[in-house]
Structure formats: structure tokens, C-alpha cells
Amino acid sequence: FFKQKTAYDIMPSLVGSEMCIRDRFIAMDLNFSDEQKMLREEIHKFCMSDYTFEKREEIIKSGEGFDRDFWKLFSELGWLSLPFNEDSGGFGCGPVELSILFEEFGKVLVLEPYLSTVVLSGYIIDNSSFSRRVEFVEAITSGNKHVSLAYIEPNQNFDHADPETSAVNDGDNIIINGKKSLVLNGGNADNLIVWVSYDDKKALILIDKEQSGLSFIEFPTVDGQTCTEISFKDVNVSKDAILAIGDEAEGLLNEAINLATLCVSAESIGCMTACYMKTIEYTKGRQQFGQPISKFQVLQHRMVDMFMETEVCKSLLYKAMLECDSNQDTKSKSVSALKYQIGTSGRLVSQEAVQLHGGMGVSDEMLIGHYLKKLVAIDALFGNSDYHLKKY
Questions:
Q1: Which residues have C-beta within 8 Å of that of residue 353, sequence separation ≥ 6?
Q2: How far is residue 151's CA from residue 102's CA, in Å, rounded to a whole number?
Q3: What is the DSSP string of 69-131?
Q4: Each residue of 244-267: pLDDT tens digit?
Q5: Which among 133, 184, 256, 335 is placed 20 to 30 Å from 264, CA to CA?
Q6: C-alpha distances in angstroms, 66 versus 209, 231, 263?
Q7: In angstroms, rounded to a whole number, what is the distance separating the alpha carbons of residues 305 and 283?
Q8: d(Cα 392, Cα 388) in Å, to the nearest integer?
Q9: How far apart are CA 312 and CA 42, in angstroms?
Q10: Residue 143, H or E segment
């Protein structure tokens, strides 16, 4: 369905059908540009050579949540500047480039807070009418500032439409009270973007982490990330800290979450690809009854199922990222379809990989069990499979 060249090869003599196919796929060119291929090669080279399993374990044990030297390297390589608008000092790249980056990150389970700082917070700041927009974007792309989005509240069940965290006027200032949970990289953030109810409307407000009235409870997640629960008690900020209000705020938040959902789905595909590749490699090397267990037909069938599930998700990723890139009306629906499939297929692929590795599959000494943890965590992020199936 998605390969234009294959369609032409099948029916080279049917001119009428060929024209029909060309009309249907002319806006769906799935050939990556030379620049996009170079980006993938650059990221892949870094991940394979520098981001080893041992290095990842060191980062997790450090308790900091990421490696600051790697984060500076991301800045020097221009990766932090990828999605920002050119008038903000970025490269103006879109969902396709972000999907490439996150797919490669998923293959080695990169821990750095690209999602929270660049995708979620960066998108909101860069596309808002905030007066200090360029200043904050430059601080993010230089690697000097981390910003986290605080929008989830306890017991909301993935529905963030009506935040209980409130903001009320106090002269020229605003007083904020409430609680936010699962704030990605919240412990390392220099600033927080908080989703609040304000004057019968919704608003996004930028708060300095050192502001009085804030309290933090930091904890690790099952996949090695760091999250924070944040309480706001009479936090006093200037009205200049309002990033967006009303329809603009709702639009920015929903677009940021939609883009982030696309990114973690691409990351899942990187995880799934690594799962079946490592499983094939393992079964070729493990001997049983005088031959590699990869020779057993029943195991071959299971590995083919892993491959097929990954390819289905990859096709849905291409559809969703192209619709997001061209800003089509159906992009949110396609992202929900992708996220649903990622949740179901990711669990199947990772569980099969763990089982085919045997007891070693659940040990911390092997990377394969960490893929399972990552895919379980991604399924719960931005709405699980059931949520996105209902949304679809």
C-alpha cells in the first residue's frame, strides 16, 4: 500500500491504473531525502558507538536521569535545534526528522530528556506568542536549560481537558494552587510549563523552578526515566509568565501531545526492531540438540510474527508522520491508530523476545528485558491502547 515503486512494478503496462496509483500516492513520497538519510546515519553511528548498554547503566545508577556531556553533544551536533522554527534559531525540521531521531534512540534506549524539553516544552514555547520565546529557545538549543511540561493530574485517567490546578488574579500577579503528577524530567527542569484553569479559561504558565511554594517528589520509572510529582501552594508569579490562554493554550497543548505521541511511537518501533534483531542473533548462537535453536520451525514462525508486527507499526508510523508533516485534518486520528497498534504489537514483540531468550531475558544484565520495560512504559504514556482505540 505504501510503496509507490512496487505498485508501478506490478502493473507496468496498465497505463490507466498506473495513473490512478500515481494520483493516489503523489503526496505520499516515502523516499527519505539525502539530508534525512544523513541524519539517520549520524544518529545511528552515535548510538552504536557511544551509547553502549554499560554507559546507559552508569547513567541510571547516577540518579541524575541523563548524561550532561551527551546533552551538550546533542547541542553541538544540532539535534536540539531540529524542530524549532528558523526565526527562533532552529532548523525548521518536522515530524519526519523527529521520527527518524526517536526511532534510532529507541534501538539503544536513550535516556536523555529530549521528549520533555525539546518536543513537549519546546513546541509550546516556540509556537506561542510569548515575549521571551527566542531567548528560551536559544537556551534550550544550547543545552543550558531544561523545561518540563506539567499537565497531568492524579486520577484524571488520561483526560487533561479540565485541570483542577487553579490560577487566580492577585493584582499584577497570579496565585497558583494544585498538584501535577508524572512530570517528565521535572527534577532537572529549570522551568515548568503548567496547565491551569484561569478565569473560566485554560492557560499555560511558565514558572521558575526556584519559585517559592513549589515542592517536589522525584522518583524513577520502570524504564529508567525520572519523573516528579509537583505541588503548588500559593505560588506567586507575574502575569508576564502566561505563555498562552484560551483556545491558543488548548491548541498548543494538544498539538504538543500529539507530536510527542508520534515521537514515542517511533521510539517503540526502534525498540521492537532491536528486539527481533537481537532475538535472531541470540537464537543463531544458542545450541540445542546439536543445532542452533533458530533452525526450529516453530521458533522461526514466532520471530516472523515479531517482524510482521513491527512492519505493521512502521507502516502506520509513515502514514501518521506524513499527515502530521503536512498538517492534515486526520493527523490526530492516524496518531491514535498508531499508538493503539504500538501498545498491542509492542507488548507482543517484547514478550516473545524475552521468552525466546529464556531466563536471561528477564535479567538486568541483558538489554532485552529493558526493551520490555520501555514498551510497557510507552504504552501508558499519553494514553494507553484502550484510550486511543476509543479516541479513534
A1: 275, 276, 278, 279, 306, 361, 368, 371, 372
A2: 22
A3: HHHHHHHHHTGGGTTS-GGGTS----HHHHHHHHHHHHHHT--S-HIIIIIIIHHHHHTS--T
A4: 999 999 999 999 999 999 999 999
A5: 133
A6: 19, 24, 19
A7: 15
A8: 6
A9: 26
A10: none
CA distance 390 to 186: 30
- Residues 279-314: tens digit of each pLDDT: 888 888 877 777 887 778 888 888 899 999 999 999
Q: Would you tell me how many other CB atoms lie within 10 Å of the CB of residue 299?
A: 18
Dmax (CA) of the chain = 81
Rounded CA separation 139/75 (Å): 10
Length of the chain equals: 392
Give the tens place of pLDDT for each residue, 139-193.
999 999 999 999 999 888 788 888 999 999 988 899 999 999 999 999 999 999 9
Global pTM? Answer: 0.89
What is the residue type of 97? E
C-alpha pair distances (Å), 386 with each of 135, 173, 338, 343: 40, 41, 12, 9
Cell numbers at 250, concatenated: 488548548
Residue pair 306/355 in contact (Cβ under 8 Å)? The answer is no
* N-to-C CA span, the chain: 21
Which residue shows C-alpha cell 498491542? Answer: 344
